[in-house]
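Worked example

This section walks through a single chain of length 522. The input is the sequence exactly as stored; nothing has been trimmed or padded.
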Amino acid sequence: MAMSKMTVLIFDRNPHQKEYFIGSFQEEGISVLDAHDLKLFVELIDGTQEQLALLDYASLVSENRDEIVRLFRALKNHLTVVFNVPRDATKRIVFYELGALRVYDEGTSIEEVYRSIKWWMQVYKQDGSEAPADLQGELQTVDFLKLLWGISGSGKSGILKVMAPRNIGQLFFKDGQIIDARVLNHSGLDAFLHIVLWKEGRFVFKQTPTDTISSVLHLTLPGLMICAQNLKLEIEPILREFKSESSVLQAINLGDLPLYDISVDPEFLEYISIPRELAEILENPYYPNHETLRILGKLKHFGLLRINEPLETMIEQNEVFVDGVNIDQQTISEIAGDVEKIDTLSNILGLKEGQQAKLVVVAEDHEILKHYLNTLAGSPEKVFLENNMYFVRLRLAEKLEVILIGMRANHQLLRLLSGLSENIHGFIFLIDARSTEKTEYLSYLFNQVLAQYPVPSVAAVTYLNDDQSLDSLKKRYVLTAEFPWVSYSANSQSEMLETVLDMRPIELPKVKEPKAESEAEE
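Given that input, the structure is written out below as tokens.
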């Protein structure tokens, strides 16, 4: 349909807005008719002509309700746009139910309203006998919900095919109403919400009879939109926890699953026991993407999910504020201990009276790290996981409060520490005596850490066998700083506590002072 064949009918008592719309449409060669009185405006509506009605909410509210209902009945076969509606979902839905193609709230500029109307006039025919032109485009360049409103407003039947990078979905329309949605093994509302969450891909709408398709969705389009908006409000915070769809996830410690109230398809658990990108997991054949995110969020909360985020997304800001993590909601683990040793530790760490100690626990092996923290905390439920770091809150002998921050010894360690440096009082390096293949790499990491953050430290060794000694193991590491090496039993909370109390100031290698010039000459 040529844009010049469409006539725009404007009901707007605001002279500034009306002048803008009239001028903008006329510049495009579009005919414009307007009326200051609603009864006169209704007389402009011609069922034999292609017309689009543009209605200002502020101009409508002063009219009689019956007149407004009569207006929308007269506009039944025309595209109708209402703008300047208060930011109240109920008010917007009322206009959608009356048959409006699009309803803009008062936060939408008149320029944006104009651009949106112009786009719809370019892609649709609205003469009651011809189908809307086949639509196709990129999801990234169009508001998907607007697209659905437009197709629905045309009153036509057809199939909207959406091709995402990893999946394909279909929405079936009958007389403008969405009657079913399908993606993978999912259908109905689950499939509709699955497709609505896609942000990238292509879409194509083809008009075709859909009489043979069973009507599975019985909600009106406004009802579906409410479901979609509510879902996004629920899901987006969960999605942000994973930072990026390129993050690699893997289910771990699944033997602990019966301890928590999580019901999950065993085949799905097997599916995510293999490391996979989040984007791939979201398109699994077992659950729609929104339900998948709910499950992943629960697994993450209980520490049953390993997350390896892309390096560029690990630290999105220059600082990571430990105090900003919701540690206070975790139950403090009370641990008895030697009061004299605890006072000594407070002095070594340079703590003021009542100040928390923030200690970083570093381990190459994830299981050893988690077991160490779980044992000290007394329960896995007292270990909090956030941004690929574990947090545990302890109170020693009712005197010293300690926050342990668990991190993996890998390429992300230094970047994570860069955000915590001002809050770090000490390091605990966990060493697995059974694994000696990465001593060179771990030596490099430990040296880099202590060169940048020369705070009290200790190396805590576990799984030391009868043929090994602390000295022989220590010699495998090429470390520039001196600090205590101690051993502990993997299942002893008291011995683990001793490793914390054994922290001491590090001794960095002394730098020789250059000789005076006179001495050098001699």
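What to look for: DSSP finds 20 helices and 22 strands in the chain.
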